Amino acid sequence: MNTPWTVDAVLLDMDGTLLDTEKVYFDSLVAALNACGYTDDVVALCHSMVGLPGPVCETMLRDHYGTEFPLAEVNRAFIITRDRMFNAGLPLKPGTIELLDGLAAADCRTAIVTSSSRRTAERHLTLAGIRDRFETLLTLDDVTHGKPDPALYLKAAARLGVLPAACIAVEDSNHGVSAAHAAGAITLMVPDMAPPTEETRAKCAAVLPDLNAVLALLQERGAL
pTM (2 decimals)? Predict the structure, then answer.
């Protein structure tokens, strides 16, 4: 029989975990780079950025393409494509509402822990109709270093007044898992754009197919 989990809060990543936005970001960046004349290794490079904060991605682009890389031009093309795709609708990942309903029914405290800016996070959660589901919101604006640094998760636990070890973290990316695990949270992964590496799997209490499976596991382990 599995040991029950004692859980005081559930900390949830946003993009790629609750919101089906990572593919929008990925496709928009690939399209922007292609439009600016960059085609070699674009897909692999963009895959390596999944789950990282925007400033880190910008540094990676400059490092990869050199100091003459037209960052402002690429950003403009990226934003145009991204906004066009978002205007078509901001989809939720399968099981998002069911998981949030289950957490609310159990009076479980929740927080968003995202590498996005506060402005972006507030906008996207509001557009998706789930902003009021979370007690607090931790974003890149709250820390000096984003994921995979554990600062966001440590600050989320501190803001809720709970120990990181008494938190469940739900992530979709290798970088996000690294952050949650380093903070000491019980870490669950629902992979999105990139499959987990073996190192990532070793950091997870479980790797699950969707958020419905997350809810079922939390109930099975007595966390709710």
Answer: 0.84
Beta partners for residue 206, in sequence order: 188
Per-residue pLDDT reduced to its tens digit, 26-36: 999 999 999 99
Residue 64 main-chain phi, psi, to 5 deg: -75, -45
Please state, for a pLDDT cut of 70, what percent of the chain lies above it. 100
Residue 1 has a pLDDT of 56
pLDDT at 74 over 80: yes
3 state SS for the chain: CCCCCCCCEEEECCECCCECCHHHHHHHHHHHHHHCCCCCCHHHHHHHCCCCCHHHHHHHHHHHHCCCCCHHHHHHHHHHHHHHHHHCCCCECCCHHHHHHHHHHCCCEEEEECCCCHHHHHHHHHHCCCHHHCCEEECHHHCCCCCCCCHHHHHHHHHHCCCHHHEEEEECCHHHHHHHHHHCCEEEECCCCCCCCHHHHHHCCEECCCHHHHHHHHHHCCCC
Cβ atoms of 153 and 183 closer than 8 Å: yes
- 147 contacts 174 by C-beta, under 8 angstroms: no
Q: What angle do CA 52, 53, 59 make, to 5 degrees?
A: 90
